[in-house]
Specification:
435 residues, alpha/beta, Gyrase A, domain 2, Four Helix Bundle (Hemerythrin (Met), subunit A), Rossmann fold, six-stranded mixed beta sheet, 44% helix, flat
Length: 435
C-alpha cells in the first residue's frame, strides 16, 4: 500500500498561517481521528485539531479535504491550515509520524505523485519548478505558461499527427505485397510529416529565447584596462561587487551579477582588461574574458572618452560602444554609441534604457514552447529522426516506420512517459518537501 505522506506546504515558520499537506489512502482516516469527522470535499471547515494519542487540542484551524482524483496529487488529500508556530507544527508532526502508514514526505514527493498519477506532464512539472524559482516578471510569465501545459498541449498535437501517419503507413506495410500499393497513401503520409516537421522546427527556432529567459540575458563588459568596467559594474547593480583601482590589470577573473531590468533577468559580467601581457595570471584572465565575450548576448565595449578610435577594440557584432569618464570631456567621441560618467552619474540612465530595449527585443513575445535543455534535446532528436523518415524514398516502408517509432519515443520522453528515471530524480529533487 502507498504510504500517506505529510509535510509543511507553506513558508518558514514563525508566521501567521502554516499549511500542512497530507496525501494518501489514510487522509480521510486522519481527518476523523484529528477532527472527529470527514468533511465535504473542497470546503473549508473551522475545527479544533486534536492529538489522537491523548485528545489534547493542538490548535484551532481550517480543514480542507480533497477526494481522488480531484486533488493536486490525484490521491485523497487533506490540508490543515493552522497558526504558523514552531510548537504547533512540531506537535502536529509528532502525532502524524506516529500514525501507521504515515510518514514525512521526501523533497518533491507530492508533485511526483501528481506526475505519476497522470495529473501533470513532465514539462508542466518543470514549469512549476521554474515558477517557484522565478525572479523576474518574464520568468514568471514563461514558467506559468509552461506549468499550464503549453508544451504538453503542443506535444499532444504532434503525437496525434504522428499517429495519423503511422496508421496510414501500417496500412501500406500490411498490403505492400499487393502490386504497387506503397504509392497509394504515401503523399498523404508525407503531408502529415511535413506538418509535424514544421511544428518541431518552429519550436526549436525559438528555444534559445526560452533558455535565455530562464538563465538571463548575458551582457559582458569588455575593453582595455582602466576603461571603467568595474566602476560601471558597481553602478549598474548599485552595490560594490568589483574592486575598483587605478592600477591596470586589477580584474583577473570574470565577476558575474544578476539583476532585474524591466522585468527581464540580466547577467552582467565584469571582465579582465584586454591587452598584450607577459603576466601568466593576467593572461588566464584575458582568455576567460574572450570566452565570456563569445557567449554574451551583448558586449559593452568600454573605452576612455579621450581615447582615439584606433585604441578602442571593436569586433563583436552585437555590441554597444560606451565612452566612459565623460566628466573629463565636453562631447561624445565619434566612435561611441553612448557616453557616461560613473562619477557624475551622467549617461547611466540612458545606458540602462539601451540595455532594457535590447533585452526586450531578444526576449519578449509569446512564451516559447521549449524552455530548457532537456526539452530541446528531446525535440531536436525527434526532428532528426523525422528528417530521416521523410528522406525515405517510399520503398523501404519498414525503415520509415522504425524512424517514426524513434520520433514517438522522443515525444514520450519529452512528456516523461519513458526512459527518464535518472532525469526524474534530478527534476523532483529541486522541490521542497511540501511540494
Amino acid at each position: 500500500m502507498t504510504d500517506t505522506i505529510f509535510a509543511l506546504a507553506s513558508g518558514s515558520l514563525g508566521c501567521g498561517v502554516a499549511v500542512v499537506r497530507i496525501s494518501g489512502p489514510r487522509a480521510g482516516h486522519i481527518s476523523e481521528r484529528y477532527c472527529g469527522a470527514q468533511f465535504p470535499a473542497r470546503q473549508a471547515v473551522y475545527r479544533p485539531i486534536r492529538d489522537p494519542r491523548d485528545g489534547v487540542v493542538i490548535d484551532h484551524g481550517l480543514v480542507i479535504s480533497f477526494t481522488a482524483p480531484n486533488s493536486f496529487t490525484g490521491e485523497n488529500s487533506l490540508e490543515f491550515q493552522v497558526h504558523g508556530s514552531r510548537a504547533v507544527i512540531a506537535r502536529l508532526f509528532q502525532a502524524l509520524a506516529a500514525e501507521d502508514g504515515c510518514r514525512m514526505a521526501e523533497p518533491g514527493e507530492f508533485i511526483r505523485r501528481s506526475f505519476e498519477n497522470g495529473k501533470l506532464a513532465l514539462t508542466s512539472v518543470e514549469g512549476i519548478a521554474d515558477l517557484i524559482d522565478s525572479r523576474t516578471e518574464a520568468q514568471r510569465r514563461q514558467a506559468l505558461t509552461q506549468a499550464g501545459g503549453h508544451l504538453a498541449d503542443r506535444a499532444a498535437e504532434w503525437r496525434d499527427l504522428l499517429l495519423d501517419a503511422f496508421s496510414l503507413l501500417e496500412a501500406e506495410i500490411d498490403f505492400a505485397d499487393e502490386g504497387d500499393a506503397p504509392s497509394g497513401v504515401m503523399p498523404q503520409v508525407r503531408n502529415i510529416l511535413l506538418q509535424l516537421s514544421a511544428g518541431l522546427q518552429a519550436a526549436l527556432i525559438d528555444a534559445n529565447r526560452g533558455e535565455r529567459i530562464r538563465s538571463g540575458y548575458r551582457v559582458a563588459l569588455a575593453g582595455p584596462p582602466n576603461a571603467g568596467k568595474s566602476s560601471l559594474m558597481n553602478a549598474l547593480v548599485r552595490r560594490d561587487v568589483a574592486i575598483v583601482s587605478e592600477h591596470a590589470g586589477t580584474t583577473r577573473d570574470v565577476i558575474e551579477v544578476e539583476f532585474d531590468l524591466g522585468g527581464y533577468s540580466v547577467l552582467v559580467s565584469d571582465t579582465a582588461g584586454l591587452r598584450e601581457t607577459s603576466d601568466p595570471v593576467e593572461r588566464i584572465g584575458i582568455e576567460r574574458t574572450e570566452r565570456e565575450i563569445g557567449r554574451a548576448d551583448l558586449v559593452l565595449w568600454l573605452g576612455d572618452a579621450r581615447a582615439t578610435v584606433d585604441s578602442v577594440a571593436f569586433g563583436q557584432a552585437d555590441q554597444l560602444r560606451v565612452a566612459t569618464k565623460m566628466d573629463l570631456l565636453d562631447k561624445l567621441p565619434p566612435w561611441a554609441d553612448v557616453g557616461l560618467s560613473v562619477v557624475s552619474g551622467q549617461g547611466i540612465g540612458e545606458l540602462l534604457r539601451h540595455l532594457e530595449e535590447r533585452a526586450a527585443v531578444a526576449l519578449s513575445g509569446e512564451p516559447p514552447l521549449i524552455t530548457n535543455l532537456r526539452q530541446h534535446a528531446c525535440v531536436a532528436t525527434a526532428a532528426r529522426h523525422l528528417e530521416l523518415a521523410m528522406g525515405n524514398d517510399g520503398n523501404a516502408l519498414e525503415l520509415m516506420a522504425d524512424d517514426l517509432r524513434r520520433v514517438a519515443n522522443e515525444l514520450e520522453a519529452l512528456m516523461g512517459r519513458i526512459g527518464v528515471d535518472d532525469i526524474l530524480g534530478a527534476i523532483f529533487s529541486r522541490f521542497c518537501m511540501g511540494k
